[in-house]
Automatic annotation (TrEMBL), chains A, B:
Its EC number is 3.1.-.-. It is an enzyme of class 3 (hydrolase). GO terms for molecular function: hydrolase activity; metal ion binding; RNA endonuclease activity. Homodimer, forms a heterotetramer with a Cas1 homodimer. Belongs to the CRISPR-associated endoribonuclease Cas2 protein family. Its cofactor is Mg(2+). Keywords: Antiviral defense, Endonuclease, Hydrolase, Magnesium, Metal-binding, Nuclease. Mg(2+) binds at residue 8. It comes from Geosporobacter ferrireducens. CRISPR (clustered regularly interspaced short palindromic repeat), is an adaptive immune system that provides protection against mobile genetic elements (viruses, transposable elements and conjugative plasmids). CRISPR clusters contain sequences complementary to antecedent mobile elements and target invading nucleic acids. CRISPR clusters are transcribed and processed into CRISPR RNA (crRNA). Functions as a ssRNA-specific endoribonuclease. Involved in the integration of spacer DNA into the CRISPR cassette. One of its GO terms (biological process) is maintenance of CRISPR repeat elements. InterPro entries: CRISPR_associated_Cas2, Virulence_VapD/CRISPR_Cas2. PANTHER family: CRISPR-ASSOCIATED ENDORIBONUCLEASE CAS2. This is CRISPR-associated endoribonuclease Cas2.
Amino acid sequence: MFVIVTYDVGEKRVNKVRKHLKKYLIWVQNSVFEGEITEGKLEKCLMELSRKINKHEDSIYVYKIKIPSQITKDIIGEEKNVDDMFL
Amino acid sequence: MFVIVTYDVGEKRVNKVRKHLKKYLIWVQNSVFEGEITEGKLEKCLMELSRKINKHEDSIYVYKIKIPSQITKDIIGEEKNVDDMFL
């Protein structure tokens, strides 16, 4: 499965969210992680993640595509790499 | 086709990018637009968009899924609606 995780999280929590997601996915843009992951690992990742956010303030979207080849990605401008985005 | 557009754009240009994308897609999170769009309209949208950014500083990713039913979306926490996000 291929997933894209986007988030809009309060300043106080955003580093915790990023550190957590970095264990499972690739940080590709300021508020975006992506990558291939199993159903089981994603479930574990999201369960832990939901304990790190404030559900009344923060917003996390998890887009899931069962077959990775069904999604393509175009880039306009820079392709950010994780080193650009210090934690 | 279903698309997700995520962006990391300089402060000076971000409003222009949002105003432009709002003509084609739905603003669903701080740096995320999504929606169904035809190949032709997307091409027009992106051509215009690339003239509004600084390609050496800004980053725009366009995730494309040919058949919308092949993608699902889970939400943890708040579902932002565009009124929360003033332009």
